[in-house]
Specification:
alpha+beta, Type Iii Antifreeze Protein Isoform Hplc 12, SH3 type barrels, 2 domains, 5-stranded mixed barrel, two-stranded antiparallel ribbon, 3 helices, 9 strands
């Protein structure tokens, strides 16, 4: 009886596996790919991308599938037209370069302070960078707002205010 049960279980599992394999193998997924070759360091626009159907088996968790996940980012390496784009292939564009002069802006109700500083680290929009205040020689953390513009983060704003007073 045991051999009969084992052989029935084997035949059942064989049919079940083939049914699952047939369902997963035919599925296609729409994936965003470069419409043209994109050079390393180039910022990718939505118009540079196309949606193509690829077998689901070719996609992995690291593959970016939506245009919104790729557009606006900078290519870390050269991307060929039609190839899948991994998360490691793109990065936020650098808006503040290490060593560059930046405009520091601090705003509070009824108050706006603007000063210049030197970026001690590089970063993109929303990244936290270290900035040196050339008047007080104090370093503080700031959030990148735009190209060459930062805003002090957290308690560091009080340091900026204190060093700006005569």
């Amino acid at each position: 009886m045991t051999i009969l049960r084992l052989s029935a279980l084997f035949v059942f599992s064989l049919f079940a596996f083939s049914a699952f394999a047939a369902d997963g193998g035919d599925a296609n997924v729409a994936v965003a790919v470069p419409a043209r070759d994109i050079a390393r360091g180039e910022v990718i626009a939505a118009g540079d991308l196309d949606l193509v159907d690829v077998p689901a088996a070719r996609t992995r968790a690291s593959i970016l599938t939506r245009i919104a996940d790729i557009a606006g980012f900078e290519a870390r390496r050269s991307l060929r037209a039609g190839e899948l784009v991994r998360a490691s292939d793109v990065k936020k564009p650098v808006l503040v370069a290490k060593g560059s002069m930046v405009t520091m802006i601090y705003e509070a109700p009824g108050l706006r302070l603007v000063a210049t500083g030197r970026a001690m680290s590089a970063g993109g929009a929303g990244d936290t960078v270290t900035v040196l205040n050339p008047v007080s020689y104090r370093q503080f953390e700031a959030t990148v707002l735009a190209a060459g513009t930062v805003a002090p983060a957290g308690l560091a704003a009080t340091n900026l205010l204190a060093s700006s007073r005569p």
